[in-house]
Amino acid sequence: MNTDTTFQQVIVIGYGKVTGEVLQYVYDRKAEYGYDLAFIEHEVHPFSITEKICSENGIPFERITDKKELAAKLDKLTAKTLIISASNNFLFPSSLVDKPNVTIINFHNALLPDYPGRNAPTWVIYMGEKETGITWHYVTAGVDEGNIIVQKRCEITEDMKAYELTEQLMNLAGEAFKESFADIMAECVEAREQGFAKDRRMYRSYEVPADGLFELTGKPEDIYRLLRSVDYGKNDIFPPMRTVIDGREVEILRYRKIPADKAGIEQSGGQEEKGFRYLPLRENTVLKLKYVCVK
Amino acid sequence: MEEKILEILEEHCEEALDYNGESMMEDGIIDSFTVINVISDIEDEFDIEIDAKYVVAENFKNKEAIIALVRKLLEE
């Protein structure tokens, strides 16, 4: 493998699983390429493994949660630097992007140019897409607009939840990064333009599918898709979905697709009255909702 | 209760059953996605809500910590 590079320094920024995988890989290649390596944690994650990777391998670790402080630090870079942004929500200022000695690459969890912005796994599920994927791209001043380095695709299965899709995308991102790393370092990537449409929609962090509300009289399949699309476990990326049951506004605490016969047993046991509601789904299955009244 | 939790752990991460260390996360036994699955199944099984404030590495450092957390929530 060709390990020639003119990059003197690599900085990894991000949090979560893919960041840990990327950081470990870049550390493992450090001696071959001869670059300096540093890690910056901009957003703190409760189960982050990056700090441990850094401490075990002697990688400089900095936690900079303030955007201005981070921008100021990066703006001072003088060495030829590759910044790897993986699961990172810091928007790089144009003054940094335009620096001739700095190259930035970013992982996006959708197939750009589609679904740019935040929470892409949510939107692809909510929109009923059958396929999505990941994109590594060069960073420009526009959000998720830079040329594409590599993409990988995956299927969205019919019961897939946002966190399950996210995990699959993280795995794909790690694979794609490793496959592309040598070309990125050698600066010989055949990157391609995104060619996005003028009316391309940018998904914002404050946007919630269906505004977080659904009608109980709606199609159960649509309700199920909405609930799966915002399901990141205990990560409160979205507020609980709301609906009206028996004239009262309720929040959905949990949901499950269960066999219809099991639902029948539960309902006859009185669960229907105890904060549960059952909606018939496809193929002898039922959507079981657990809710709590909020008004 | 313990038996049920161990069954859930076995389903999502068999290695957790034999782990005797102090941080399954740092030792690469489980990751944040496994935690989500385990929490989801525990909530269903015991009909409890595990508030996000409890979803910290300390409460998922090993199987004993998870059992202790569920026991505490069931007693509340």
Name the CATH class of the largest domain in chain A: Alpha Beta
Uncertain runs of chain B: none
- SS elements, strand count of chain A: 11
Q: Count of helical segments of chain A? A: 8
Q: Regarding CATH, which class of chain B?
A: Mainly Alpha
Give the name of the CATH architecture of chain B. Orthogonal Bundle
Main sheet record of chain B: none
Secondary-structure element order of chain A, N to C: EHEHEHEHEHEEHHEEHEE
Total domain units of chain A = 2
What count of domains describes the coordinates of chain B? Answer: 1
Compute the number of helices of chain B: 4
**What's the end-to-end separation of chain A, in Å?**
63 Å
What is the N-to-C succession of helices and strands of chain B? HHHH
Could you tell me the number of beta strands of chain B? Answer: 0
CATH topology-level fold name of the largest domain in chain A = Rossmann fold
**Helicity range of the residues of chain B?**
55-70%
The named CATH superfamily of the largest domain in chain A: Formyl transferase, N-terminal domain
Strand content of chain B: under 5%
Shape of chain B: globular
Structural class of chain A: alpha/beta
Unreliable spans of chain A: none
Quick synopsis:
Chain A has about 300 residues and is α/β, with parallel strands linked by helices.
Would you write up a description of this structure?
- Chain A is of the alpha/beta class.
- Helix content of chain A is 30%, strand content 25%.
- Chain A has helices spanning 17-33, 50-57, 67-75, 94-97, 120-126, 162-186, 220-229, 260-268; strands spanning 9-14, 36-41, 61-63, 81-86, 102-108, 131-138, 148-155, 242-245, 248-259, 276-280, 285-293.
- In chain A, helix 4 links the parallel strand 4 and strand 5 (102-108).
- In chain A, helix 1 packs parallel to helix 6 (162-186) and helix 5 (120-126) packs antiparallel against helix 7 (220-229).
- Chain B has one domain: Non-ribosomal Peptide Synthetase Peptidyl Carrier Protein, Chain A (Orthogonal Bundle).
- Chain B starts with a helix and ends with a helix.
- The mean pLDDT of chain B is 90.
- Chain A binds chain B through residues 16-17, 45-47, 49, 52, 163-164, 166-167, 232-236, 253-254, 256, and chain B through 25-26, 28, 31-33, 35-37, 39-40, 43-44, 49-52, 55-57, 60.
